[in-house]
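Reply to dn_fold:

You asked what the input looked like. This is it:
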Amino acid sequence: MGQIYQYRCHDCRKKVSFSLGCGMMYPSICRETEEAIASGELGQRLKDAFESCEFPLVCPCNQMYLCPDCGHWEVFRDYSVYSPADIETAKASFEETGRKPFVLDWEVEEGKIICVGSYSPECPECGSEMHLSPKNKKGNLDANFLRCPRCESTNASVNPIGYYD
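and this is what came back:
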């Protein structure tokens, strides 16, 4: 399930709605993403990372990316490549269920799943490499890093306003 958010600038009142996460098409999007990475459609670096894994995983959910150079922010699908730390357990689970494990943030933080090739989209404004937007202490998107697209203020909030499938 994905979540819908609304960015709101407190200075000029600009509002921007966006969706993060993924919906019920997640399994088919994972298969499409694996095929695109394996074919090189998403670049040689990700293809090499995918091929280097004995049991590669993807988590093609919508994420907020931020340009460190110009401050532009935008939602892109995350095409990073992951590998389970315990490959044998992951393989056994896959054989039993027919489904690859999900890539969950807490498992990455705890080292149970390892990022072997991170995705960095090109900024559509300046061409620099974008990075995942920082999160606050609660693990939510931090509005302090998002400049208003209208007035460039950082006096803003980001709040969840709904869910989608």
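The longest helix spans residues 26-39.
Hope that clears it up.
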